[in-house]
Design a protein that fits this description.
Number of helices: 2
Shape: elongated
CATH architecture of the largest domain: Sandwich
Mean pLDDT: 83
Order of helices and strands: HHEEEEEE
CATH topology of the largest domain: Immunoglobulin-like
Structural class: alpha+beta
Strand order of the largest sheet: 1-2-5
Distance between the termini: 92 Å
Number of domains: 2
Radius of gyration: 31 Å
Low-confidence stretches: none
């Protein structure tokens, strides 16, 4: 290839880039990477961080007429707020036989709760499905304002 051939290529295709990126491109790329990393960190903490409400089943006992009494402990980080927990019983094949919502009123940070759950078939075990501070109005002990 001669010098004339090289000139013809440059005329035809334009002058090639030198391969270096500007500082601005690196800065923008770095900021995007930091923002994405922070977003992933926040979502991970919300999903896998410490739970605001923790439960521990302590006992369950079969009762007549396909019912089960269960006792569980609720530990919460905001004891002055009420909590609603969904408890359920399971039958022999593993399916859910019955469930119940249980209101845990404000009180101590750790509270023992006992409830009875009725089942469609003979229950073999019981567990706490989950708890939340979002108490439905029909379970609330507060009187709604009139008007």
């Amino acid at each position: 290839m001669t010098a004339t051939d090289t000139t013809d290529l440059a005329d035809r295709y334009g002058k090639g880039r030198d391969g270096r990126r500007s500082r601005k491109a690196y800065l923008v790329g770095g900021l995007v990477a930091v923002a994405v990393g922070a977003g992933v960190g926040v979502i991970g903490y919300q999903n896998f961080g410490t739970a605001a409400i923790e439960t521990q089943q302590t006992a369950f006992e079969n009762l007549p007429d396909n019912a089960m009494r269960m006792t569980f402990e609720v530990t919460r980080d905001t004891p002055d707020k009420p909590v609603v927990c969904i408890v359920r019983v399971r039958v022999l094949d593993g399916s859910e036989g019955g469930r119940r919502e249980v209101l845990v009123p404000p009180g101590e940070s750790s509270t023992m709760v006992t409830t009875v759950v009725h089942s469609g078939a003979e229950p073999v075990t019981a567990d706490v499905f989950g708890c939340t501070y979002q108490v439905p109005a029909y379970l609330s002990t507060e009187v709604p304002p009139s008007g």
